[in-house]
Amino acid sequence: MSSTTVESTPSPRDAGSRTRRTGSGTSAGPGPTFLRVLNSEFIKFRTLLSTLILLGSTVIVMVGFGALSAWGTGQFSQAATRDPQAAARLAAQGGDLAVGVPTSGIAFAQLILGSLGVLLMSSEFTTGMARSTFAAVPKRLPAFAAKLVVVVVTSFVVTAVSTLAAGFLATPILGNYGLNLDLASSQSVKMLIVNSIYVAAVAAIGLALGTLIRNSAGGIMSLVGLFFVAPIAFQLIPGDFFVEARKYLPGNTVAPLTALDHVPATLEAWQAGLVLGAWVVVPVLLAAFLLKRRDV
Questions:
Q1: 9 phi/psi in degrees, rounded to 5
Q2: Percent above pLDDT 90 for the chain
Q3: What is the DSSP letter of 261?
Q4: Of these four, 25, 33, 61, 207, which has the most CB atoms within 10 Å of its CB?
Q5: CA distances from 26 to 22, 29, 30, 188, 274 (A)
Q6: Residue spans per domain, the chain
């Protein structure tokens, strides 16, 4: 006596559930979509104590230097009324001295947030977290792009908020010396936006250096060398080549972008913008390319 096996035809509901389980087809199933990767990177970013310390340090440094610069600017303007030499130096500087007070701590903000960009990627390799990250996101580039978005947006927002806070604190200090700081003026808004974009660009460069070097100390030292050591070295080394090359260092692109009028011996504003953009795009693209090619 033979037995007959009857094969049941899967229902559309079963087929749909199988499709969702395998993650294939057009239905929204499990998988590392960019929004999910971005959310994951943001969670990792905001839950690290080191990140919060660096962001808090940026705000403190920006606000502190804004207050200190306001006091120093007031003292300088007051001395100019009594000292002819100080008055001559004040006239030689030109423009409104008060407008640059809120952004006087930018040099330190770029170092802190640039280092944050380095650590955001280099720590993945030094701690071995990169294996888990790229096992979850095998294509790697979405994880890199998500980190880039997180650090750039955060750096821009933190710098802008810190600049505003420094401006609000500096306004009454400058007022004691008869100086007026209009935070709503076109030049103040320009200073805030340009400097915030610049610090965000430095953070992107830091992320690229952390990806390329894969070492926190090496990445931070490279960042310091590029933004602090190289300008001084190019200024000390004699020769027309170094005088001209110094204009194209990323740290020397802010002054042309924020100046009311073109400053002699500097790039035009549009040239400075292109140079800064190139300093961001080239390392980021190189880092993304090598991230795909190299082993974890």
A1: -80, 125
A2: 60
A3: S
A4: 207
A5: 11, 8, 12, 49, 41
A6: 32-293
Indicate if the alpha-carbon torsion angle 105, 111, 117, 119 is positive or negative.
negative
pLDDT > 70: percent of the chain: 84
**Residue tagged 């701690």 (tokens):** 127
Give me 50's structure tokens. Answer: 């080191």
* 3 state SS of 28: coil
d(CA 75, CA 282): 43
Measured CA to CA, the distance from residue 244 to residue 260 in angstroms comes to: 22
Q: What is the pTM of this model?
A: 0.85
Q: Quick one: 87 exposed, middle or buried, by C-beta within 10 A (0-12, 13-18, 19+)?
A: middle
Q: Which amino acid belongs to residue 104?
A: S
CB 41 within 8 A of CB 150: yes
* Locus of tokens 């790039």: 267
179/185 Cα distance (integer angstroms): 15
Q: Tens digits of per-residue pLDDT, 219-262? A: 999 999 999 999 999 989 888 888 899 999 999 999 899 887 77
What phi, psi does 231 have (nearest 5°)?
-60, -40
The dihedral sign for the CA sequence 287, 49, 146, 251: negative
Residue 63 to residue 60: CA distance in whole angstroms: 5
Using alpha carbons, select from 118, 147, 125, 88 the residue that is nearest to residue 221.
118
**Chain-centre distance for alpha carbon 262:** 25
- The one-letter amino acid at 294: R
- Tell me the CA distances in angstroms from 11 to 5, 15, 29, 159, 287, one per residue in order: 18, 6, 19, 57, 48
User: With the C-alpha atoms ordered 171, 110, 38, 279, is the resulting torsion angle positive or negative?
Assistant: positive
Structure tokens at 211: 């990806």
